[in-house]
Write the structure tokens for this entry.
Amino acid sequence: MGRPKHTPNDPERRERIALAALDLIQEKGIGQVTARAVAERGAVPVASVSYYFDSVAELLREASRRLLQERSRRLERWLAASTPQTVMDDLAALMVYQLDERRASSIAAYELYVLGMRDLQMRRLSADSTGRLRACLAPLVPPDQLDAVVAAAEGFQMQCLFQERVPTPQEVAAVLHAASCCPEA
């Protein structure tokens, strides 16, 4: 018996397309994401890309959503055992991990954040990601220091992506402690 009518022949195709776009972003940058390049990477016909995504912008938003969700889950897991006394050091260790072992993912995330300056839907995704950082830190950082710590973490990590050398956890923690206006532990 054949497959039922009106069911996809390749139910994982949309997923493969989104993952192919994310791979391309991490490997080559958002400027290299085209329907043809994504189709080639995902081993699907070019027409499938436009079938599942109305535009490259929509595909970039989906890739961004996936990447930012992954980063948010990692943040939540990483800081799950943090205390107010350890949070700056724990966040610093996560930032170093993202700058070193997850560098391509971090570069892609910041590239996609920048799209939010011109694309309202992407802006909402970027704001949501920053909001998740804020939410993870809120129980651990005094309210009057929270904005400064979030800004320092986001800004310093982006600055570090321009450098060849990955800072040490101690160097990152020093920046975070300075932003929080409290002495290092």
In short: The longest helix spans residues 56-79. The domain at 61-179 is CATH 1.10.357.10 (Tetracycline Repressor; domain 2). DSSP finds nine helices and no strands in the chain. The mean pLDDT is 91.
